[in-house]
Amino acid sequence: YQKYKPYKKIKKVNRKWPDNEITKAPIWCSVDLRDGNQALETPMNLEQKINFFNYLVKLGFKEIEVGFPAASDTEYTFTRTLIDNHMIPKDVTIQVLTQLRTHILDRTFASLEGVHKAIVHLYNSVSTIQRDVVFRKSKEEIKALAVDGARQAKKLAKKYGEERFIFEYSPESFPGAEVDYVVEVCNAVLDELKPASENKVIINLPNTVELCTANVFADLVEYICENLKYRENVIVSLHSHNDRGTGIAASELGLMAGADRIEGTLFGNGERTGNMDIVNFALNLLTQGVDPKLNFSDMDEMIKVYEESTKMSIHPRHPYAGKLVFTAFSGSHQDAINKGMAHMEKENLDYWDVPYLPIDPKDVGRNYDAIIRINSQSGKGGVSYILKTHYDLHLPKAMQQDFGPIITQISDQASKELTPKEIYEAFISEYVNI
Ligand code: KIV
Ligand code: ZN
């Protein structure tokens, strides 16, 4: 992360209104290799998981959930491969998911033998529907399951070297449960895990099936943060899904409501509609002038790794990543961008201040070629920008006004986008080959 050129600064908007924004990057945890992987039609094989892990390290993730080792041989072998081959950098902590049953906990800890540091992620579902329909257990029984599991896990940690383990507990589907009950279960688990300043515990709040709107989620997060025991030694983490299409908003508001840590995946891969998209969230921070502390300076490489690993593709309008998101076809947008770019050049600005482009495309490794593209919606500003940037032709104002409509007409009649070469040829034929 330290090695790459920092992102460009963004000009802060002075709204003359109290700003309530996130001011620093959260602790990030990638769950691509677990939640993302478990949702794929064909889960990644060992080699793909290793490559993806190395790539997440390169992006700057310091906490990476690598899988559910007790769930399959590939998951177990992958965890062992990382540990046995010393593939985990000293400043990176792997995380593994486990249910609370004895044989599963045993296998989970066996998969971690010798690790320098790992987060053991315990979870059980607490929602009313899961309690009543799936488990057919009372509130007390579900709480006992969590507490007993935490106790067993603590015992196993002692056996394998207590200093090597951090615990995370997730009350799965918690927005579907009574909030005071959620607090009660989390506090009972914390009593077992005994958080201390040198032994922090992560309470992860999963919006498992995004049951509520982002503001309600944030209210729940705030209430839980205020009522957790040992709060100063607890890291509150959020794990949003995107079933209502507002996973990012929920995580953003939840962070402002008191959380410290965010779990998510690259481009939002994950169960059903996906997990919270870390790329989107992180680059939203950038637009607010906050360094996300993740290196997304080569978006095209990230898309390639993602597409090869997941066999899915990125939508052309995916925020910050899609191939059309830094492109303007319409005349008025092109004119404004053209003026913004000229203003940056003239004033030699070291911060980004261009209309219609929330960040400098170069910050994510894109060049300026795709910004202005010409079709029948385009105007004189766009056309003259293309001639200037591709052919060093600086059209005087009167000529811009004359030539713009000619290009509009050619594109309209042909019903297609025009390349810079076609625009240049039209220019030559109009003004030179007379
Ligand atoms: O979405 C979810 O609830 C999960 C838990 C296992 C944390 O993935
Ligand atoms: Zn999940």
- DSSP strand content: 5-15%
In angstroms, what is the radius of gyration? 26 Å
**Average pLDDT score:** 95
Order of helices and strands: EEHHEHEHEHHEHEHEHEHHHEHHH
Tell me which ligands are bound.
3-methyl-2-oxobutanoic acid, zinc ion
Secondary-structure-derived class? alpha/beta
Order of strands across the main sheet? 2-9-8-7-6-5-4-3
What is the rounded distance between the termini?
Answer: 56 Å
So how many helices? 15
Low-pLDDT stretches are: none
Tell me the total number of β-strands: 10
Q: What is the helix content?
A: 40-55%
Largest sheet: 8 strands, parallel
Shape: elongated
GO molecular function: 2-isopropylmalate synthase activity
Binding site for Mg(2+): 35, 239, 241, 275
Protein name: 2-isopropylmalate synthase
Cofactor: Mg(2+)
Write up this protein.
Helix 12 (331-347) packs across helix 13 and helix 13 (380-391) packs across helix 14 (397-414). By secondary structure, the protein is α/β, with parallel strands linked by helices. The strands form two sheets. Strands 2-9-8-7-6-5-4-3 form an eight-stranded parallel β-sheet. It has a two-stranded parallel ribbon with strand order 1-10. The longest helix is centred in the middle third of the chain and has 22 residues, at 139-160. It has helices spanning 32-38, 46-59, 73-84, 102-111, 128-135, 139-160, 179-193, 214-227, 247-256, 278-287, 299-310, 331-347, 380-391, 397-414, 420-431, and strands at 9-10, 27-30, 63-67, 93-98, 118-125, 165-172, 201-207, 234-240, 261-264, 351-352. It has 15 helices and ten strands. 3-methyl-2-oxobutanoic acid (KIV) is lined by residues 35, 97, 123, 170, 172, 204, 206, 208, 239, 241. Zinc ion is lined by residues 35, 206, 239, 241, 271, 275. It comes from Terrilactibacillus laevilacticus. Homodimer.
